[in-house]
Each structure stands twice: as C-alpha cells, then as structure tokens.
Amino acid sequence: AQKVTQAQTEISVVEKEDVTLDCVYETRDTTYYLFWYKQPPSGELVFLIRRNSFDEQNEISGRYSWNFQKSTSSFNFTITASQVVDSAVYFCALSGNGSGTYKYIFGTGTRLKVLA
Amino acid sequence: DSGVTQTPKHLITATGQRVTLRCSPRSGDLSVYWYQQSLDQGLQFLIHYYNGEERAKGNILERFSAQQFPDLHSELNLSSLELGDSALYFCASSHTMGQMDYGYTFGSGTRLTVV
What we know:
The complex is a heterodimer.
Chain A (H helix, E strand, L loop, with lengths): L2 E3 L4 E5 L4 E3 L2 E3 L5 E8 L6 E7 L6 E3 L2 E6 L4 E6 L8 E9 L7 E3 L3 E6 L1
Parallel strand pairs in A: 2-12
Antiparallel strand pairs in A: 1-4, 3-9, 5-6, 5-10, 7-8, 8-9, 10-11, 10-12
Chain B lengths: L4 E3 L2 E4 L5 E6 L6 E8 L3 E9 L2 E5 L6 E5 L5 E5 L8 E8 L10 E2 L3 E5 L1
C-alpha cells in the first residue's frame, strides 16, 4: 500500500527563520513520483516541485530546496529565510502506477505559520 | 489561471439534495481526476477518467458518480447529500494516463457546503 506521512501538523516560525517540512513515504512501486503542493488560505493547490524515483538530486529554487533520500524514503522541503507570504498548508504527495492509475496519495499536510 | 476550470466555485445546498460539479480540463488533456478535501479525511482521490472511460476508483461513495463526456469535460454528481459531504472538491487534468508530463494541473476547486 502507498502512504505519505507528514508528522508535523503545524509549525510556527518567525520571519527570516529557516524551516524544514518533513515527508516520509511508503510504496512498493519501482517507478514513482513525489510532489509538494502549497495551499494558501484562498484554497487552491499550487504546484511546487515534482521528483521521480530515479532522480535523487537535491533541488534548489530560490528560497526553496528539496532533499530526496530513497534510503530513508523521505522527501523533505526547506524554506530558507521564511516570509509571511509562505504561510500556508503544504502537502507532500506520492504517485505511482502500481494500481494502474497515477492517482495521488496525499499526506495530511503541514500548516506553516510565519510570524512577522 | 491553471487552464483547468471548475464550476461553480461555491455551492450551498440542503441535506438530501443533489448537485453537479463541472470540470473542464486543460486543452489537450485526456485524463481527469477528482479529489475531495474534507476536514476529517484530508485530500482523497475519488475517481479517474481517461478519454471518456473510467480508469480507477478511490474512496468514492455510492451516492457519488462521475462521467467524462466526448468533449472531455467531466461532471461529478453528488446525491442524497449529507452534512459530511461538505468539502472542497478538486478536479485535475493531465495529458496522458501516466506521468510523462509534469504531473497534474489542478483546478481551483468547488467549495460545497451542505446545510
């Protein structure tokens, strides 16, 4: 069975602090994809990153960085120098073709509050 | 604008009623996925259609049904509504059945409130 665990329900930081959001996944698929989405208070799901199971390179995009480690089944997300606009719920998701469809399995989300 | 259009954006209805949520996928996308986001269940996969055919079902109640039409738009029908059906319903589209592109494009969602 596929599963995504985001153990951190809510995190509060002060602006300019760095923060890491944890994501641990379980899958038996050999090919799978991992995603991070941001859900601001307005409700839409904003795509942040996609990573496939064959690409373990870390990625940096501006203040965002992602650390994918297959050995620990983790795909963690770090925001450097956090800003108030980063306040949102962040979802990690897993997608594989083990069941014949590329449905997403979402984690329960981490609510990030960045205080001014 | 993501290119995936969901209507209506908000819907308030009474228990026992039936509603239809509509999704127009991004131009050229053949796959449509429906997800439900509720406070107690989180974001859950409901159903997947590819080029008019149902491909997979998730945690979709029997009171719910969906279809994808020849023009590729999709509708999610919710009947005998209960208070617990109040949720944000997302539609997502992708070009293929698989993940050969950059994943899904999500619509902005329909917020359903059952009173």
